[in-house]
Design brief:
Glucose Permease (Domain IIA); ten-stranded antiparallel beta sheet; binds zinc ion
Length: 270
Amino acid sequence: MNFFELPNIFQKINLRTVNKLFGLLRKKELRYVIFTVLIIGVYFSDGFFSLSHKKIEKKATTMNFYNESLKINVENPVLDSVVNDKEREQLLYAIENRIVQFLYEIPDYSLIPSLETYLRYSPRLLDEIPSCVPLEKGNYDLRSQFGYRIHPISGGKKKHFGLDFAAPKNKHVFATASGTVVSISHSEVGYGTHIIIKHRFGFQTLYGHLTKVLVSKGQFVKQHELIGTVGASGASTGNHLHYEVIKNGVKVDPIPSLNLKKNILKKLIN
Ligand SMILES: [Zn+2]
């Protein structure tokens, strides 16, 4: 056998294998097998693709189990208190872990209401989620919503990725959740002078068109901490705060977040 015979052998093998494969494929049964394997593959590949709404919802309902166990624990008159206390502690820890995992996975605010019952066990998590208004009550007027609108400067139809709060110049702007200031930018166009804060669970918030910045890059700020003042820097027709919430890299509608903390705390008191 010399060197030049090699390709011939491969051709023979390839042709034989290919013919065999096509022969098999012609069989009806095999098509069913391939179809079934594909369906099973898709079913078990959760997490491989982005998490579906339903799957996250399912996670919230599995938390009912913890709630039931907690009820049994609290109402149990048989177990001695040390064992009972320890079990309760473990259950609360498990609940918080679940909530944290859930908060990282949710794509926006639409599934948070299903967490309300459980957030009462660790309400301080609300300090780390953008869950309030970035301005003082009575100081603002919500002028522009999230979504498509006619742009006030260009006049064209454009998506607005945040909320516009009209407010007098120099009114205080507050962080809507605790986190780290990751960016402070000054620009003649776009958002003008703006701050970006990075929070836990994949949340970020952006505060645009400011006059003054009262924090520095890398600084840790608490929820409700003063970070800057309202202005009209950048592309702005008047004094207002442009506010954005970003979740896992995607700009989401901040509307459900504005009274989130207040509403959950209200329910906890009741
Ligand atoms: Zn805006």
